[in-house]
Amino acid sequence: MIKVAVADDEQKELDTLCGFFKKLQAEVCEEIAVSTFTSGETLLEEYDHSFDLICLDIDMGGKTGMDTAREIRRKDGQVIILFITNMAQMAIQGYEVRALDFIVKPVSYYSFSMKLRGAVNLIKKRKKRNIVLPTAGGVQKISTDQLYYAEVNGHYLYYHTAQGVFKQKASMKELEDKLEGLSFKRCNNCYLVNLKYVDCVNRDDIQIAGEWLKISRPRKREFLQALANYMGGIEL
C-alpha cells in the first residue's frame, strides 16, 4: 500500500485529486490510500511518518504549503513531497525542501499521471531493499520484501524468510538502520517484524508466516499503532 496525504484549502481541488488517485490506482495496479487535509496546520497535527507521499497546495490560507513542507522536512527526511500550485515560479523554492516535482493548476489528469507515475515507481523501489549475507559457501542475497521477521540471539541475527532461516553476526540496531523507512517494527527486544506479513493479533501475540511471536508490554502501543498505520488507519 502507498499512503498519500493531500493538503489543499479548497474542497473542490481535494475531490478532484482524490478522483485522480483512484484512477491512477487502477492503472498502476497498486493500492493507494489517500488522506485529505484542508490546511497545513491539520496535516502537521496528524503527521505520523506513515505517509509515502505528500501533495501540498503552496497557496493555502494560514500556514502555506511551503511552510508546511519545511516543518515536515524537520520531522521526516524520507517522505516524497510534490507541490500543486497556480504559481509555477513559487515551485522553484521546492529545492529548499527537496521536493520531487510540482504540478500547475488547473490540474489535468494527463499532467497528474505523468508526475505521479514517477513518484509511485520511486516509492515502490524504496519499499524493498536487498540484504547480502555471508554463508559458508559464499554469500546469500535476500530481499526485504521476502523477510518475515528478524530475531536477535546473542551476537547473531536470524533472518526468517520465504527461502528459510539465515544467520549473520550483527546487531538489531544495525539492521534497523538498514531498514529505516520500510515497513518493519519491533514487537519486543528480540523481534523486528515485517508488518506486511502480520496475519493476526491476539492480545499479546501476533501471528506472522504461521508463527506466533510475543508483543512486549513496553512496545505494544507503538507497535500496534505502526501496524494500524500500515493497514490503512484501522483501530486495533
Structural summary, described in words:
The structure is a single chain. The protein is an alpha/beta fold. The protein has helices at 11-28, 40-46, 65-75, 109-126, 172-178, 217-230; strands at residues 2-7, 32-37, 53-57, 80-85, 101-104, 130-135, 138-143, 147-153, 156-161, 164-169, 184-186, 191-194, 198-202, 205-208, 211-214. It has a five-stranded parallel sheet, with helices on both faces. Strand 6 and strand 7 form a beta hairpin. Helix 2 (40-46) packs parallel to helix 3 (65-75). The chain is elongated, with a radius of gyration of 20 Å. The model has no long low-confidence stretch (mean pLDDT 89).
Overall geometry: elongated
- As a percent range, the share of helical residues equals 25-40%
Query: In which order are the strands of the major sheet placed?
Result: 2-1-3-4-5
Count of distinct strands: 15
Q: Please report which band the strand proportion falls in: under 5%, 5-15%, 15-25%, 25-35%, 35-45% or over 45%.
A: 25-35%
> Helix/strand/pairing class, anyone?
alpha/beta
Distance between the terminal alpha carbons, to the nearest Å? 18 Å
The biggest beta sheet is recorded as: 5 strands, parallel
**Count of alpha and pi helical runs:** 6
Q: Are there runs of 5+ residues with pLDDT below 50, and where?
A: none
Regarding quaternary structure, what we see is: single chain
**Radius of gyration (Å):** 20 Å
